Please model this.
Amino acid sequence: MSTTGTNTAARAPKLRRIALLGARAVGKSSMVLQFVENVFVESYFPTIERSFTKQLTYHGQQYEVEIFDTAGQDEFSIFNGKHALDVHGYVLVYSVTSRQSFEMIGVIRDKILNYTGTDWVPIVIVGNKTDLQGQRQVSREDGEDLAARWKCLSCETSAKTNMNIGRAFELMIAEIEKSTDQVPEEKKGECIIL
Ligand SMILES: Nc1nc2c(ncn2[C@@H]2O[C@H](COP(=O)(O)OP(=O)(O)OP(=O)(O)O)[C@@H](O)[C@H]2O)c(=O)[nH]1
Model:
């Protein structure tokens, strides 16, 4: 049976670019390393900026996902052209053991919205380090309530035990697809310039 152009296009991997942003040491690099290379490293090396690529299949569609692991932010970090990334979606990571890191994702989201001049961008909120239950400062409900307010998706993860790491990236793809479904066909695949 011959393959039509449309079917071929449907099977071609879609390129999706994702940036991980959050406070220092919340586990952004650990999440990416667990997702891409299935490893967890206990030692901490502050990130400057790295990118990784991984193929995944979601709802029968192949994706080539380019992931930008960014340097940890604090309230004084300048969010400007230095961090300029062409991305489709943002994974905002906090640690469930740090209230401050939870508050930081609000600061980062405001910077993204200011920078893009929009009131909504595809975001997934991720509360990492759930294996450290005794040190919790942010409840699951806090994360869910924030996601409801921001109209985005959220989940909790542990990069250490590999809990929900794949799911966090799948939710990001889902959120991006939700947004690209709402734009005309010829605009699909275009990126938001951050
Ligand atoms: N227990 C536990 N430790 C974690 C988890 N994820 C990361 N860590 C540890 O937390 C520390 C910081 O992890 P990184 O992945 O380097 O954090 P980061 O957010 O990339 O840090 P920056 O580069 O400063 O932005 C490291 O010592 C990790 O081993 C987790 O899920 N559970």
Q: What stands out?
A: The chain is about 30% helix and 25% strand. Confidence is low (pLDDT under 50) at residues 1-6, 183-194. Residues 11-179 form a domain with the Rossmann fold fold (CATH 3.40.50.300). The helical segments are 5-11, 28-37, 99-116, 140-150, 165-180.
